[in-house]
């Protein structure tokens, strides 16, 4: 299972949604779990392109 967590992008500027395995400490793109992100800010956030690409690879390989 995977979860979405809001946090800064790799440059540390823009708030994005990252993908991480449940009970993991790192997102798929290698960032640490984030704490204290305001829900109202996260509602408008985009998605981490690195996490989404890796997640797509994982889901595609799981179906083969």
User: What is the chain-wise order of helices and strands?
Assistant: EEHEH
- Strands side by side in the biggest sheet: 1-2-3
Question: What's the helical proportion of residues?
Answer: 25-40%
| Structural class determined from secondary elements | alpha+beta
C-alpha-based Rg, rounded: 12 Å
Q: What's the number of helices? A: 2
Q: Mean pLDDT, as a whole number?
A: 87
The number of distinct β-strands equals: 3
In whole angstroms, the N-to-C terminal distance is: 18 Å
Weakly predicted, low-confidence segments? none
What's the quaternary structure here? Answer: single chain
**Main beta sheet, described?**
3 strands, mixed
How are the SSEs placed, and which strands pair?
Blueprint: E1 2-8, E2 15-21, H1 39-42, E3 46-47, H2 49-63
Parallel strand pairs: 2-3
Antiparallel strand pairs: 1-2
């Amino acid at each position: 299972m995977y979860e979405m967590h809001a946090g800064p992008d790799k440059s540390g500027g823009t708030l994005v949604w990252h993908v991480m395995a449940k009970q993991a400490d790192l997102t798929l793109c290698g960032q640490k779990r984030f704490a204290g992100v305001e829900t109202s800010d996260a509602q408008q956030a985009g998605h981490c392109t690195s996490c989404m690409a890796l997640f797509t690879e994982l889901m595609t390989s799981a179906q083969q």
